[in-house]
Amino acid sequence: MSDRSLLELNLAEARDGLARRMFSARELTAAYNDAVAEAKPLNAYITPTPERALTMADAADERLARGEALLLDGIPVAVKDLFCTKDIQTTAGSHILDGFRPPYESTITDKLWQAGAVMIGKANLDEFAMGSSSTTSWYGPVESPWRRPGDNRPLVAGGSSGGSAAAVAARAALAAIGTDTGGSIRQPASFCGIVGLKPTYGRCSRWGVVAYASSLDHPGPMGRTVRDVAIMLRAMAGHDPRDSTSAALPVPDFAAALTGDIRGLRIGIPREYSVDGMPGEIAALWQQGVEWLRAAGAEPVEISLPMTKYALATYYIIAPAEASSNLARYDGVRFGLRIEGDSLEEMYELTRAAGFGAEVRRRVLIGTYVLSAGYYDAYYLKAQRVRTLIARDFAGAFERVDCILTPTAPSAAFAIGDKSDDPIAMYLNDVFTVPANLAGLPAISVPAGLSADGLPLGLQITGRAFDEETVLRVAEVLESAARFRHLPGFVAGGGG
Amino acid sequence: MALDTAAVARIASLARIRLSEAELDPLADELSHILTWVEQLNEVDTTGVAPMASAAAASLPMRADAVTDGGCPSAILGNAPRAARGFFTVPKVVE
Fold first, then answer.
1. Quick one: which of A14, A164, A213, A258 has the most CB atoms within 10 Å?
2. How many alpha carbons fall within 13 Å on the CB side of residue A121?
3. What are the pLDDT digits (tens) for A367-411?
4. Which residues of A touch B61 (CB under 8 A)?
5. CB pairs below 8 Å between A and B: how many?
6. pTM of this structure
7. Are A218 and A484 contacting, i.e. CB atoms less than 8 angstroms apart?
């Protein structure tokens, strides 16, 4: 098969093709290595790993030839450069991790390789996953493969898993893994026209993931279709004794939940998500989503999540607080960048001043402040109490409904550089995604339509804790109804 | 809460991040802006509401108190900006 036709296959199709020996894992991987090189102008990857990929593909081919294929054998996957990969540079998009080669492998990537997946490269991201645009990386901004028709300005891929999303959308990865602390899988998925799933907190291990805000960080899959992320999730999920918050629950066959039958399911439509200034086209797409699910036999139910408007402010206390603690480890002593000073204190201060970018520095300072003596109760404890109320809102709603339908983001992708001088304007990107992180609930973004200026828009399904199966089932029905077949202006292999 | 430059300098010192004089003013504005915005939480009555630290189960799992990892000093020191004789090295802290 030609490179182009190989790159057109989604994960489920590629798996079938490999199993039937229509092409080899080496051919598929070589096509993706070429695609990664062709997509270089997007800056979606910090570290491509083409040779490692071919070695892994050859091992997959041997298993395939023996008829012992694993779940993801021969599938080329992009890894957000927040997951530690043994002996392969891991940057978190930060200068302060210069030269860091982890002596260990993260649980999630280890599980992917144990399932036969092929690492195609380490994907670019916002520094330490702090951002909604993938423009704060020390390695430069990620560009979306999408453009507004008739407008050549480069657009953001969303963030912080923007490199992963851009790579999947541009056919420079068959699937990807990301992390989602406040929307960092779902918002870039929405901006790039792909599917992104944030599983339940505890479903996927955080061991070996560079920590941002530990109570909010969620690893998860990104792919072209709902089925693709369901297959990925099965390989990623499961109990890990090395993460004390990992859930000791069995891992279902998530793809088997995609029955297409949502008759009788109750779909919550929260009235508080009709926020001021929401573009009419997003409100209209949301309404269209309601109609699609109703037509498939589900029952829309209006619900109220009254604490929604406080979720962002809650997040922007808790996440920086946890970040200031987690990022205390970057001190120039054990790994990464070091700027010498005359004293230990001076070495710490100079290293951290040089190593952290503006947004990371801002969040570490805010976090240090809200945890400091005299302010802890007023900010941090207050936010944790509001977090309880936000989680209670959802618990109440899920007594009445099976899942919740909302838009993923309040806008389509914006131009690189926009919103970068106003932190709060940037934070507002996460208004619809942050609540699921605070409550730890599974949520998925599915591409559902185009904006008036030709850019993808996603709809989000949020479900009960550890009920990814219902989330995925409803998402697939939404995907089938939306029939989103649009391609970005750039795809590797010249597809389209 | 409006932070002045002295407060920003104190926070930066707690966070071990060196700031120049020129950086203090703009950062005081930015951080004050963010803090004022998050203070909208004061509108919420949280009397009697317990704080939530995590969505995970409240009690942590127990395991045997046994060594399960380690014994690889060279792998760990391999990333150190400076190391000598099996140790990380730092500027002299005792005269």
1. A164
2. 27
3. 999 999 999 999 999 999 999 999 999 999 999 999 999 999 999
4. 241, 244, 248
5. 163
6. 0.98
7. no
